[in-house]
Structures are given as structure tokens and as C-alpha cells.
């Protein structure tokens, strides 16, 4: 009887799949995002064990102010890393600079992004351009599916999930 209970209990299932299932959650819907819960909830989450390098480019305004603090960037990075922790993927700032051309502070997406990226790209890193505003609005950020960069607004960094959302686009997840 104990063997039967041990093989089919929720705790035994958790051990087999590497996904912790609490007894009161078993066979019930949870509020856990599908990225953590997985589609079938039977296969273990693949652990990538990767650290990816970020090149952060902060665009100044015409008064040479960025209007974003290092603390804002670090706090957003903590959330980004927490969101990707279930798959053992993390990000770190390898290089950070300031773009002193206020022309890009209010970035015109279709016209200026190629120019900005050609001028400031750091090869072999995920380039993150931080601007005040993206035109046309109301985008808080974007990441092309076939690129090595993304653009985030100040508002995106203050939104707890915006950077993670854009990183998902970067990896062609949606």
C-alpha cells in the first residue's frame, strides 16, 4: 500500500518531473505563467545555464540628462533575471555607455533605428537602447525577431514586466 501511495502521490510526481506540485494545486488551474508551468506540466523545465551579455546604451536629452538612474536599470535587470531564472538564463551588463545625440531621445522607429544601431552597436552582445519615447507611440519597447538589439523607453524600465516581454520578442517567443 505504501509503495502504491508513494508512486502516485503528488510528491512522487514532482520528483519525477522536477516541477514542484503542491497537493492543493494538483489538478487545479493556477495563476503561474505558462513559461514556468509549461504546456503539459509533465516534462522538466530545460535549464540552459547561460549568462548573456548586455550592452546598455542610454540616450541623453538636449540638456545632456538621461532621466533614468542606474538604480532604475539595475532594478529592471533584477526582474528580468528573475523572470528567466526558471530556465537558468541570466543577463548581465557587460558594457554601458551614453549616447550624447539627443536626436535619438525621441526615437523615430522606422527612420532612425538602423542609423542608431549602425553607429553604436557592440558586437556579440544584446544591445539595449534606452530612450525617452518611441515614435510612433504607444510602444514602450520593441525587439526585432532577427536582430541583436532592442529599444526600451524609460516607462518600460519602470514597468515590472516590460523588459522581460521585449526579451521574449528578442528570442522570437511571441
Set down the secondary structure blueprint.
Layout (H helix, E strand, L loop, with lengths): L1 H7 L1 H8 L16 H4 L12 E10 L10 H15 L4 E11 L6 E3 H12 L5 E6 L1 E3 L5 E2 L6 E5 H5 L3 H9 L4
Parallel strand pairs: 1-2, 1-4, 3-5, 4-7
Antiparallel strand pairs: 6-7
Quick one: how many beta strands?
A: 7
Output the strand order for the largest sheet.
Answer: 2-1-4-7-6
**What general form does the structure show?**
globular
- Order of helix and strand elements from N to C terminus: HHHEHEEHEEEEHH
Low-pLDDT residue spans: 1-37
The CA-CA distance between the termini, in Å, is: 47 Å
Mean pLDDT: 79
What is the number of helices?
7
Largest sheet: 5 strands, mixed
Question: What radius of gyration results from the CA coordinates?
Answer: 20 Å
Protein model, in words:
The structure is a single chain. With 174 residues, this protein is an alpha/beta fold. 34% of the residues lie in helices and 23% in strands. It contains 7 helices and 7 strands, in the order αααβαββαββββαα. A 5-stranded mixed β-sheet has the order 2-1-4-7-6. A two-stranded parallel ribbon has the order 3-5. α4 links the parallel β1 (50-59) and β2 (89-99). The longest helix has 15 residues, at 70-84. The radius of gyration is 20 Å and the shape is globular.
Amino acid at each position: 500500500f505504501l509503495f502504491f501511495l508513494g508512486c502516485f502521490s503528488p510528491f512522487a510526481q514532482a520528483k519525477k518531473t522536477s516541477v514542484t506540485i503542491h497537493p492543493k494545486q494538483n489538478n487545479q488551474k493556477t495563476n503561474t505563467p505558462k513559461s514556468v508551468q509549461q504546456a503539459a506540466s509533465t516534462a522538466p523545465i530545460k535549464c540552459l545555464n547561460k549568462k548573456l551579455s548586455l550592452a546598455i546604451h542610454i540616450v541623453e536629452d538636449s540638456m545632456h540628462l538621461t532621466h533614468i538612474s542606474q538604480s532604475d536599470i539595475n532594478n529592471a535587470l533584477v526582474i528580468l533575471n528573475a523572470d528567466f531564472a526558471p530556465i537558468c538564463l541570466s543577463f548581465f551588463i557587460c558594457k554601458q555607455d551614453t549616447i550624447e545625440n539627443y536626436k535619438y531621445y525621441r526615437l523615430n522607429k522606422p527612420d532612425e533605428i538602423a542609423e542608431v544601431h549602425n553607429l553604436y552597436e557592440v558586437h556579440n552582445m544584446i544591445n539595449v537602447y534606452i530612450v525617452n519615447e518611441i515614435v510612433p507611440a504607444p510602444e514602450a519597447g520593441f525587439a526585432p525577431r532577427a536582430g541583436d538589439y532592442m529599444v526600451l523607453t524609460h516607462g518600460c524600465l519602470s514597468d515590472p514586466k516590460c523588459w522581460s516581454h521585449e526579451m521574449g520578442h528578442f528570442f522570437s517567443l511571441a
